[in-house]
Amino acid sequence: MPPRAPRIGFASLGCPKALVDSERILTQLRAEGYETAAQYADADLVVVNTCGFITAAVEESLETIGEALAENGKVIVTGCLGAQPEKILARHPNVLAISGPQAYESVVGAVHAHLPPVHDPFLDLLPPQGVKLTPRHYAYLKISEGCNHRCTFCIIPSMRGDLVSREIADVLREAERLAKAGVRELLVISQDTSAYGVDLRHASGEWGGRSRKASFEGLAEALGELGIWIRLHYVYPYPHVDRVIPLMAEGRVLPYLDIPFQHASTRVLRRMKRPASSANTLERIRRWRADLPDLTLRSTFIVGFPGETDDDFEELLDWLGEAQLDRVGCFPYSPVEGAAANALAGAVPEELKQERHARFMERAAQISAKRLAEKKGRKLRVLVDAVEGDFAIARSEADAPEIDGIVRIRGGAKLPVGEFADVVVTGADTYDLEAKLAPKVRG
Ligand code: SF4
After folding, report:
1. pLDDT, tens digit (0-9, with 9 covering 90-100), for 244-294
2. Cα 312 from Cα 212, distance rounded (Å)
3. CA atoms of 197 and 204, how far apart (whole Å)
4. Which of 145, 190, 192 to mutate to test the pocket of ligand 1 (most atoms within 8 A of CB)?
């Protein structure tokens, strides 16, 4: 009897970027013959991938470590909070090892030290798509680490360092592997997707028998050849972003842009030190929509940033009304330990922040409801995520998983999960659509 494979429990906290880190670590461990355990108690050791972005995430990470220690006892910590080991050790001195973000080798090294692998060259086969924590049919594709900007509310550059892009051939090979393994949608993520390749001086790489440029457009164009949904997240509105609009119009990349605008008042944007803050974004949006009427725009905003006046906030509301963004997230500003914005004068009282947040979300909800209502009667291609009772739960090109809306398909119980379907929109509420199956075209 071969010895039992060592089992790892894994807790992954934080943003989709952290999820990709977790996938990489699991991919490596799985390749070495480790198995994963769904419960802490069934694992021989637990890895906790932490988040340290805001105070609440730090607390959640510390609690998860405590839970893993109580239920299992052998815990290795990695991820963003691992960049501040003193915080972890003050609460949990018994963890086995701590490493920071993207420290795959350290995590795997720590696992080897505390739970040596059992080698079996015949059993240790790496599934072609790696080990996904996301459903099989979509995957996050992380193209770079770190960020060259220094937004005053953000501590990511101090935790993750400057932008380091993955080589283009490496990214494209991974994307191709995922597509071949059945992934139908790739979500391209990084801190600053439109800056991809800048640090590599756009060095080319070979993929699919051709030379490919390590640039935002080069990457989007090559990914568009895979024949699956390509969704671009965290794109800043630099001028060269305009060049992906034709790829979207040709159906090679989803007509979807996730642009974290954060605010509309130039004064606030300057205090935030946001990239591309001086661009006339309304004009750009108008042009994009003229060329591509089906473009979905998603964004996030911060209200109540230090120094934000009533006028700044009204400007933001007016801007939102003009921009008619499809999908919007908004956070009342909360100081992050170590962020430069903490030194800015003009703190906005908590009550006012909450009031602005509520007003902003109300406006955003009206826009969303109106734009979704306009889709009634339209035929859409959707990707089925799940089946619940008589309904299939799917997403259209306009819906990223987890953060956007859904399309509920009445009578869709028989639709295969992870496959595309064609539907006709029958109804809409504030954020979601309802649909029925489109009649099959004979031919
Ligand atoms: S662009 Fe700004 S908010 Fe985004 S990671 Fe960089 S510094 Fe942080």
Report:
1. 999 999 999 999 999 999 999 999 999 999 876 656 889 999 999 999 999
2. 43
3. 9
4. 192
List pocket residues of ligand 1, CB cut-off 6 Å.
147, 149-151, 154, 156-157, 191-192, 275
Are β-strands 433-437 and 391-396 bridged in parallel, bridged antiparallel, or unpaired? Answer: unpaired
Spatial separation of the C-alpha atoms in residues 396 and 296, rounded to whole Å = 11
Residue 129 pLDDT > 80, yes or no? no
Reduced to 3 states, what is the DSSP secondary structure of residue 402? coil
Residue 49 has pLDDT above 60, yes or no: yes
Closest by CA position to 285, among listed 221, 251, 217, 237 = 237
CB atoms within 10 A of CB 346: 10
Mutual orientation of helices 216-223 and 168-180 as an angle, nearest 10°?
A: 20
As a dihedral over the C-alpha atoms of residue 353, residue 357, residue 360, residue 363, rounded to 10 degrees, the angle is -140
Residue 103 is encoded by which pair of tokens? Answer: 């420290």
Q: Which of 42-56, 221-235, 314-328 has the lowest mean pLDDT?
A: 42-56
Cα separations in angstroms, 102 against 3, 6, 24, 158, 226: 31, 23, 9, 14, 27
